[in-house]
Design a protein that fits this description.
mainly alpha, two-stranded antiparallel sheet, 15 helices, elongated
């Protein structure tokens, strides 16, 4: 999702950008932004609506009693934050893109609408920060589970997962709290001619950063770098490291499974063969789940890492903000929203346990062969241990 700077109206001196661009393709990027802006609201509304439904389904499936696990607890917390992100963006897109267009006007920027914009600007940053750090938490738990399986029962418990989820929600709220102190609603009086000698005063309401005093400017600068480092850069670096470690660990697990399989085949001891036959399917299921979660992490990283770099550069170069950062805002938003809503598709396509549970919960078993329903009942205990 975009940061606070992209949601809030630019100051008057930054509305008109010089025709002399410092960055290559800046004018083309501005043309693209102006063209895409007319479609963004409709596209975002559809994505948000479908994403809210998808995340609601994720919550229903993952919170079932037979799906209780540390991993699913974190995924449920992630589905809640993703759903809240999209739920908040939907009225924002409808009001400020679809119903009243994208140009600032007294009708579009009424006092009630701008007060909602103030709430959205702060709330969306909080819930998106929660999503980012829950993804880091998910990758950490999974790495510990795969790298140290003998200690997983002690390290990655359901109680610890619940504590981690609550901790992320609480700390994210504290870290993002300064956002509420750096912005406010401001009104600008416009005089509109109604007749030859008649004028009407209209108030144009906007949300802007407080910049009047040195304390305001310090708080704005301090908050910007806290958001850039703790909300964007640090979690992206952490996810990159954890992704590399997970991939390496998965390769080792694959090699171990192959060795175990060959040993099981060559062994003349029936006892060892039976143990190997039981261990191999379990390792395969664990690896399959890890692959699915790795895809979730990598897709999240793919959308968040460029935002982190862009956000960091915007704090260094003012021209970068005007020519690149603001013109990429809508595109960044739609990519982030798509990522927020895509997990349901990933779970369904990459996790048989999630698919079977989804079919069972929504009574879809009546539409599929009876043998699938029986297999789901027989394998109900596996859902807790693997996913």
């Amino acid at each position: 999702m975009t940061t606070l700077s992209e949601t809030i109206s630019p100051t008057p001196e930054r509305i008109h950008v010089s025709a002399d661009h410092q960055f290559v393709f800046a004018s083309e990027l501005m043309d693209f932004s102006n063209w895409y802006k007319s479609y963004h609201g409709h596209l975002a509304a559809v994505v948000c609506l479908l994403g809210c439904i998808a995340n609601a389904l994720n919550i229903v499936v993952l919170s079932r009693r037979n799906m209780f696990s540390a991993t699913n607890c974190i995924l449920t917390g992630l589905a809640i934050s993703d759903g809240l992100t999209m739920l908040a963006y939907l009225p924002f897109a409808l009001r400020f893109y679809v119903l009243y267009g994208t140009e600032v006007s007294p009708e579009r920027n009424s006092l009630s609408a701008v007060r909602f914009l103030l709430f959205y600007a702060c709330f969306s940053v909080v819930v998106h920060t929660v999503s980012i750090w829950l993804t880091v938490t998910l990758a950490t738990f999974r790495y510990l589970l795969v790298r140290h399986p003998q200690h997983a029962a002690r390290l990655c418990t359901l109680a610890r997962a619940k504590t981690a989820v609550l901790f992320v929600y609480g700390v994210s709220l504290v870290v993002c709290a300064p956002n509420f102190a750096t912005i406010n609603v401001q009104g600008e009086v416009l005089r509109e001619k109604r007749g030859q000698n008649d004028t009407e005063e209209l108030i144009l309401w906007t949300v802007r950063f407080k910049q009047k005093t040195s304390a305001d400017r310090f708080l704005y600068s301090f908050n910007f770098w806290v958001q850039a480092i703790l909300v964007k850069l640090l979690p992206c670096v952490g996810l990159t490291i954890l992704s590399v470690l997970l991939i390496r660990t998965m390769k080792r697990a694959d090699a171990k499974r192959q060795t175990l399989r060959l040993s099981s085949l060559r062994s003349t001891s029936s006892r060892w063969s039976n143990n190997g036959d039981r261990e191999i399917p379990r390792m395969r299921l664990t690896t399959r789940t890890t692959r699915m979660l790795l895809v979730v992490v990598l897709l999240f990283l793919l959308t968040e890492f460029p935002q982190g770099v862009i956000n960091l550069l915007s704090g260094i170069c003012q021209n970068f903000v005007d020519e690149i950062y603001l013109n990429l805002g809508d595109l960044i938003d739609i990519l982030a929203l798509t990522n927020n809503g895509i997990n349901f598709i990933l779970y369904c396509t990459m996790s048989k346990q999630f698919r079977d549970s989804f079919v069972h919960i929504f009574r879809l078993a009546e539409l599929v062969p009876h043998t699938l329903h029986l297999r789901l009942i027989r394998r109900g205990h596996v859902l807790r241990d693997v996913l």
